[in-house]
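Write out the bound-state structure for S-adenosylmethionine.
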Amino acid sequence: MTNLFSSTTQKDSGPVECLGQTFPGEQARREHYIKLLAEKLKDPAFRKIEGFPQGTDEAILAMSDPPYYTACPNPFLEDFVRHYGKPYDPSVKYSREPQTIDVSVGKTDPLYKAHSYHTKVPHLAIVPSILHYTEPGDIVLDGFCGSGMTGVAAQWCGSAPAAYRHELETEWKNQGKAAPKWGARRIILNDLSPAATFMAANYNMPFDIEAFSTAGQKLLKEVASEIGWMYETLHTDGKTKGQIAYTVWSEVLSCSSCTGVIVFTEASRNDETQGVEDLLTCPHCGSKAKKEQMDLTFESFLDPATNSAEKRPKRVPVSIVYKIGKAKFSKKPDDEDRRTLAKISDLPLPADLPLNRLPDCQMTRVGRMRTTNTSAIHFMFLPRPAQAMALLWRKAKLHPDPRTRSMLLFFVEQALWTASLLNRYRPTGFSQVNQFLTGVFYIASQHAEPSPWYILDGKLDRLGKTFRTFQTTPGQAAISTGSVSSLPISNSTVDYIFTDPPFGENIYYADLNILVESWHRVVTDAKPEAIVDRVRQKGVSEYQHLMQKCFAEYFRVLKPGRWMTVVFSNSRAAVWNAIQVALQQVGFVVAEVTALDKVQGSFQQVTSTNAVKQDLVISAYKPNGGLEDRFIRTGATAESAWDFVQTHLKQLPAVKVSGGDFQELLHIVERDPRRIYDRMASWFIRHGAMVPMSTPEFLAEMHQRFVERDGMFFLSDQAVEYDKKRQQIPQIREMELFVSDERSAIDWLASFLKKRPSTYSEIHPEYIPVVGAAKKKGEVIPELGQLLDDNFIQYDGNGVVPSQIHSLLSTNFKDLRGLEKDDPRLMAKAKDRWYVPDPNKAQDLGKKREKALLKEFETYKAFTGRKIKESRLEVLRTGFRAAWASKDYTTIISVANKLPEETLQEDEKLLTLYDLALTRTEDGS
Ligand SMILES: C[S@@+](CC[C@H](N)C(=O)[O-])C[C@H]1O[C@@H](n2cnc3c(N)ncnc32)[C@H](O)[C@@H]1O
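---
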């Protein structure tokens, strides 16, 4: 085979500096590090690192460009951090508030679209966060980097166009924020999947764009001259040759009534709409039936990879769309076309075509992948695209310049999904490129098989244009392949983490990436993949533990006092809980959870685990060294609890203002005293310590230690800032409270009664509609009367009217204005109203309530049946907490074992204590 690129001389740029060493040129730099990496690969201990991909040394070296990119754990990351990072210095002041992001921004940006990945967060959505949390030169990390958009964002901070800068600065100014410091940040990217990191590396490492464009054009031309004949067809004039754009293939079925042969495409076509009918009409007997009711016809073939007989669905070409010059035509395949196809089928399988079997996975066990027997990579390609893709791959690999070669493979990779049988035929689609179902392997009954040029010609131009506007700099990014749970970086070295982990069971990345990885001959090690996967026996709890290991590494490498943004999207409460528990157990403190309200275009803080149907953004921080050190010195005392609250309040925003023309002050959920208590309790529990005070004690003392405004708590300087804003914007938007369990029912009542102390008959009609809709399954919420009795106080008409009721009545009733608190008219109107007790009374009530809850917990302990189907969460939480405090881990475990799985998995507090109790008993501590 001719080497198309043999005439290309490798340009060398002159001396280059790399991690403190100077090399005569890029080639020398690369040779030096390739040699080091090759030696490292021989070390069995190195290959044992968690998440080490499966591939030979040669294959790993061929993908890598060390020290910047390795298709295995990057042994040079540590040097990168040492060389470019700033060591953690506790005396350097750093303070930021949590910043939320809109993950849907930038989905049409050409850079984002330059290479597709199963899920992607656009770089433009990430840029504001990086600008907010970091300064130029800081180190940003994304350990679940996928296609590497966080890296693009980090580098984009240095090359953002003037118009973008101006727009962002104006927006920040309107929010009262100072302009960001522009300039690229250093980035460390990591992913378990070599397909992902290869993409991330090519997005983030500089290359010669002109050399790439020229090489790309040559590649397509050369392939055309070698296999162009495979894509020729005779025009209907009988003499002109047309170039095939795509061929439509259809499965063949057999009629359930007459057993006649049915070509799916023909029997299902609606000529008027060009669409596909649900019912197929048999051309022989005219009977109508659904596809599923007919039998798929199979043909046998000898698999050259194994020399064994296999079967595959019988597929026939039904139409050809081709071009002559710019004109487009379509035709039914004729004998000549069939002869060409048969000739291609007879060719030996090309050497570059991967022949590996797909692993046993969820996607191959069910659905069309199973029924079509698509069980190996080469079964996913018809003979012609198999030849074409292998040739493109082989030629791209021959380019002598490693960086251009890598970009060519990045370019060719993008045709793999479309060239495979995953590409569905869309009769009404504008283009037949990228018509596969995203996030899953799915083989449709109709397949559009495009030519390589139909897929890639336009792509090459677009890539050229896109990358000309985006500048990357050598040494700005370091990319590694392995599990986040074992990052080769030292402690406290990273300045900010932005990350978008897998969301439970949504997407099987390793299984999907095998299609591309097989071509590289380096595939993901799926063992540490943090997903829910029945086939690999990973349930929600395994997912939580995998995530916990990953978050623990994040925690270790992040500098104290610094932030992590976690983007999350899943509608299962259990998965959401798993993330929350995993985060807090490793030591992160969550400071804000927001969701974008797509209709209003504003961010909402998320309070309830039921409301997780949107994309959520979690802002969490690693508490600064001072707090941890003081905790170690003083232990789990009340003072360390207040120390935590003090530190936590400092991290929270003082004010939050709604966007839009009509500004309102927003209630900051994380400043709610109960929420602060929960954060404090999680922190203590995670340190293996007992929570040093009860909720009522805590709530009572909060008032003495901190400043309360509108039901939120502040440090005094923050309260000053809040008051100032409150004067400018008097309107405050209340949180919408969902009642899903007893706790939220109490919160709802507290918020209602605070504004309006009311009688039972006034409360009842307002309360009933809110309690029904969102109730958690299996949760018992006590009757309204009991909730009021246990948590609030009713004025019985004797003694002075409590000030909470007095102020409501005197503002709302003219004739009651200015009356003394013991005036009989006022007392009569106040009688039977329920109100929110003041902190001291609340403490008494709280203690009484806790006793009652613990008493009820005894019944759960004594329960001898199989499962407690319905339970009161508040009882369970209080019981678990008390058991934890007395180190009675067996009670926690035995009650937990009697609960339905969802009850545990969907409640953060129960799950945390259960998990820790398990660890404690396993440890024998
Ligand atoms: C939601 S995707 C990230 C997509 C990315 N934000 C982008 O824009 O392309 C999650 C990634 O996590 C990776 N992953 C799963 N388990 C991992 C682990 N233990 N360590 C590192 N990466 C992992 C998957 O391979 C997948 O690429």
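---
Confidence is low (pLDDT under 50) at residues 1-10.
The two ends are 68 Å apart (CA to CA).
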